[in-house]
Amino acid sequence: MKISTLIQGLSIGAVLLLAGRPAYGLSFYTNISETQLDNDPIIDIAGYPGDTISWEGFFETTGLTANLQSIALVAIYDSNEITGLDFKRVDDDAQFFPEFSRQVTTDTSTGLTTIIGFIGGPPGLPPNFNHKFDDVAITLGSQLNNDGKADFTVGLVTRAVDANGRDVTALFGKPLAFEVQLAAVPEPSTLFGLVLAGGFGAFFRKQNRRAQA
Which of 23, 113, 199, 213 could form a disulfide with 106 if both were Cys (CB 3.0 to 4.6 A apart)? Predict the structure, then answer.
């Protein structure tokens, strides 16, 4: 399902944040385990139907001159391919952002589910600080289509304000989008080779024990 049109209207940054790699400067990033299974530019996440894939989300406030006071953070996923989502703020997040609420809406015609989280202080996050914000887990559905379209988008910041009332939204980069795909199944010849290697290994270990006896 297409997420790109919705992202275009909401995105305001200019730098794509890479999974598993903090972007130095004001940013939201993740430690998603990424791969590239095809030739399209979207990052791929490999798995099988029913698999649970987990990651952590972080805020980086390098470059700010005042606390990051409030944020509106958006995630969008295709519920046709992702059937479950578990989101949990880390325990110490409330000391920085005591205010938290979220809105969840699903477009029944496309299957796209949009989650908007509103978090706010005071005190907020201090400048030049790295903070783990949440733990996220998704469950893969039975329809893992390799269609070159994003199935999950995270880190879309639509509003961010510091403690001086300055709008710092534009300092955040673009969100991270990825596609969930069916993990590669080994070719029959590869499976045969593994079985053959295992058989030879067992044979040689047996012969070695006999020689030692």
Answer: 113
pLDDT tens, position by position, 54-81: 999 999 999 899 999 999 999 999 999 9
Phi and psi, residue 111, nearest 5°: 85, 5
- Tens-place pLDDT, residues 22-46: 444 789 988 887 777 777 778 888 8
Which amino acid, residue 212? Answer: Q
Contact indicator for 49, 144 with CB cutoff of 8 Å: yes
Query: Above 90 in pLDDT, residue 186?
Result: no
State the sign of the Cα–Cα–Cα–Cα dihedral 126, 174, 116, 151: negative
d(CA 78, CA 169): 25
| C-alpha–C-alpha distance, residues 118 and 7, integer Å | 18
- SS3 call for 188: helix
For 55, other C-beta atoms within 10 Å of its C-beta total 18
Mode of pairing for the β-strands spanning 43-47 and 176-182: parallel
Distance (Å, rounded) from C-alpha 201 to C-alpha 207?
10
Q: Which of 44, 42, 21 is nearest to 31 (CA)?
A: 21
Q: How far is CA 188 from the centre of its chain?
A: 32
Distance CA 85, CA 165 (A): 33
